[in-house]
Design a protein that fits this description.
- The chain is of the alpha+beta class.
- It has two domains: 86 residues; 67 residues, no CATH class.
- The strands form two sheets. Strands 1, 5, 6, 7, 8 and 9 form a six-stranded antiparallel β-sheet that branches. It has a three-stranded antiparallel β-sheet with strand order 2-4-3.
């Protein structure tokens, strides 16, 4: 009898350690792992207006419409030049003078291209933004009892997260000034929520359903 009990305990322990049961369990530890895996694959990034490099930016004239916004865009590219992610060439390009006339005029412009350093900093997932950090869960606040919705078992999870592995260049004054949203992105203990879905292999983030 004792021998049989030892075998049963060993089997149960083995199942627990290999996660054969725990992956489908609705619990804070499980949900934290799922959300962290999702966050690891979706880095915090910053991005200028366009990232289809090389990017040509016409220099705004004093009387151009939206001059302030155009200058802000150029400031972002220049900040990335300053930290070695982009290189810039001053050129003159031909453009249509306005929407009503077909007259072609030549205007000063800057052409921004990626450096090797910039290529390394690009988000590997979509190649559109420069990675500055990743989020990790601080704490699972609460979650709803798993329920059936449209044929799926789901749970809504509330949690807090903080940025981790923040890159050094994000502290550069030129970057901080050119990308004011960084302050909010890098705040600690942000309140967030996610919907998790139970599939054959366990719980996954709802945004991974079609992948």
């Amino acid at each position: 009898m004792k021998y049989m009990m030892k075998i049963i305990v060993a089997i149960v322990l083995g199942l627990v350690l290999t996660g054969c049961w725990s992956k489908k369990e609705a619990g804070k530890g499980n949900f934290e792992n799922v959300i962290n895996e999702y966050l690891e694959r979706n880095s915090i990034t910053i991005s200028p207006l366009r990232t289809d490099f090389p990017v040509t930016m016409e220099l705004p004239s004093k009387d151009s419409i939206g001059m302030e916004m155009e200058q802000e865009n150029i400031n972002q590219y220049e900040a990335l030049v300053g930290i070695g992610f982009l290189e810039v060439k001053n050129e003159r390009v031909e453009i249509q003078s306005n929407l009503l006339h077909e007259e072609i005029v030549t205007v000063p412009a800057k052409i921004y291209s990626l450096t090797e350093k910039g290529k390394q900093a690009l988000d590997k997932k979509n190649q559109r933004g420069f990675c500055v950090a990743t989020y990790q869960v601080d704490d699972i606040s609460d979650f709803s009892e798993p329920s059936e919705t449209m044929g799926y078992t789901i749970s809504h999870v509330n949690f807090t997260l903080s940025p981790h592995n923040i890159v050094d260049w994000v502290k550069d004054e030129r970057v901080v000034e050119a990308f004011p949203d960084l302050k909010e992105l890098l705040e600690e203990h942000q309140s967030q929520s996610a919907t998790l879905v139970l599939v054959d292999d366990g719980w996954i983030h709802a945004e991974d359903m079609d992948k």
